[in-house]
Amino acid sequence: AQSVTQLGSHVSVSEGALVLLRCNYSSSVPPYLFWYVQYPNQGLQLLLKYTTGATLVKGINGFEAEFKKSETSFHLTKPSAHMSDAAEYFCAVSDPSSASKIIFGSGTRLSIRP
Amino acid sequence: DTAVSQTPKYLVTQMGNDKSIKCEQNLGHDTMYWYKQDSKKFLKIMFSYNNKELIINETVPNRFSPKSPDKAHLNLHINSLELGDSAVYFCASSQGSGAVYEQYFGPGTRLTVT
Hints:
The complex is a heterodimer. Helices cover about 0% and strands about 55% of the residues of chain A. By secondary structure, chain A is mostly beta strands.
């Protein structure tokens, strides 16, 4: 069975500071990995995904994540936080052989201090 | 142009009632989904349809019945509503049924059962 653990339900950083949101996964097969963002009162939007190939994945809005198989991690980073980054972030994992079933983590709320 | 739309946006009803939520996508996608997000933001897949055929059916009470009249629509009917059904329900769609395909989410329907 697959699972996702997001460390820290709430992360607060200053504007311009580094953003680091942590995600660890459990999977018996090489997984697909995703980060989604949810702005207040909106649906989820894909930030980036890892399927195969390069382990450093770049996404929208300046975010990137690195797949580290040895650490079973897929942490999300952004060099410089912007006020508009305040949102809920979800890490997710999927079995490539599954029929679109994605397992989501519990989410991390990112707050940005002026 | 709205890609994935849901109606209604808010739904307040009493226990025991029957209600429906409608979802439409204009992206030409083959696969559609229903997710439930509880008060702690935990997001879990309920159903998935590919070309009007059910491909994912998670452990959901049989009071919940999805219906896909065509590829662009996936409705969710809920019988005998209970307090625990209060949540935000998200519809999503993707180009194909494989896990590699990006899922596009609707804005959500906030269901409150009193």
